Amino acid sequence: MSKKYGLNTATAVVIANMIGTGVFGSLGYQLLGLHDFASIIILWVLGGVIALCGAFAYSELGAAFPKSGGEYNFLTEIFHPSVGFLSGWVSAIIGFSAPIALAASLLGGYFGNVIPGYDARFIGAAVIIGITIIQTIDYRVGGGFQSFATLLKVLLIVLFIAAGFFIHPQPVSFVPCKETLTAIFGSGFAISLVYVNFAYSGWNASSYIAGEIHHPSRNIPFSIISGTAIVTLLYVFLNFIFLYVAPASEMAGVKEVAFVPAKYIFGENGGKVVSLIISLLLVSTISSMIIAGPRVVQRMGEDFSIFRIVSKRNKHGIPATAIWFQSAVALVILFTSSFSVILGYTTFVLTLFATLTVIGVIVLRFKRPQINRPYKTFGYPFTTIFFVVANIWFMYFWIKNNTMPSLIGLGIVALGMLVYFAAHNLSKHQDKKSQ
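Above: the chain's sequence. Below: its structure in C-alpha cell form.
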C-alpha cells in the first residue's frame, strides 16, 4: 500500500484548497465597494497573476527543500527556527483551522438554502468530523477521496459556467472605461483585492505535504503551478457568469452569493439543487486543508520534543494526532467566531507570512547560491518582486480598513514568539533529561 500521495492528489489538494470559501462567498462583499464590472474582472485576473507569481517562488523552495511543513520548513531554512516557528504557530492555530471553520460555516449556509431550519454550525461540524475520520485511515483512501471530490467540484463549475452562457444576460458592460481606471486606483479595489487574495489562497498547498509526495522535486512545482493556472481560469469565468446573469443589487453583501445567479440559471428549485451541490463540494475544500495543515503541526512536534505527542503517526503513516488536533481547533473557531472576524485576522496574517516566504527566495539566492534548485522561479526576480509589492500594498489597505482584526492576527503572532521561547527551552531541558 502506498505511503505517499501521487501527482494527481497533490494537484487536487492545491485546486481544492483554492476553490472554496473565497470564490463562493466574496463577490457579494466586492460589490459593496465596486460597481464597475470591468474592474471586478480585472481584479480576479490580477489576483490570479499575483497567485501565479507566488506559485513560481514556492515551487523553487518546495523543490529545493522537499520536506512537509510549507512556510515552517522554508522560513526555518532561510531565516531562523524562530521565524519558521511563528509561521507554524499561525498555521496550527488559525492558518488552516480558521479557513476550515469558514468553509464549514459557508457549507452549512448553502445547505440551509435548500433545507431551512438547520444550524449551519452543526452541519459544518459534522462534515469536519466525518472528513477527519476519512483522512486518518490511509493514503489510498484519503488521496482517492480528495481526487474524486476535487474532480467533481471542477466539473460542476465548468457546467455552471457553460449553462450561464445560455441565459439572457443582464444589461451590463465589461468594457473598460474611465470609471474602470478610477476604480482600480481606489481603496475599494485594494480592499476587494484582499478578498480575492483570500479566494486564491491555497495555491501553495502541496508544499505542506512535500515530504509525502512521490518525486517531490518534479511534482511539487507541477502541482502548484498547474493547479493555480486552472483555478485562475475557473475564477475569472465564474465571476463573469455571476455578473452576466444576476443583478448586482441582489448579490451585494450576500455571503452565499453563488445561490443568486444559480436561481437565474436553473430557476428557484434548480438554484436550491446547485446550492446543495456547492455545499457538498465544499467538502473537498475542507478535506484538502485537513490533509495539508496537520503536516505543519506534525513537523513542529518532530522538532520540539515538548510537542512530540502531535508528531505521532498511525500504523499507515498518517499523522492522525495532528489531524485531530487541527480539527478540534477548527470546531472551536466554528462555534465561537463570526465569518467576518475570522476572515479579517486570518487573511492579514497568512498574507504576511506568504510575503516573507517569497522574499526568502531572493534572500536564499544570495545566502546559499550553491544549493540544488531542480526548479527555478519563472521570471525571477520580476515575478518575485511583483508578488511582494502587491502583497504589501493590500496589507496596508487591509490593516487601515480592518485595524482590529489585523491587530488580533498580529497578537496571535506575538503570542507565538512567547510560545517559541518556552517550547525551545522546555524541549532542550526535556532532551537533556532523556539523554
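The chain has a mean pLDDT of 85.
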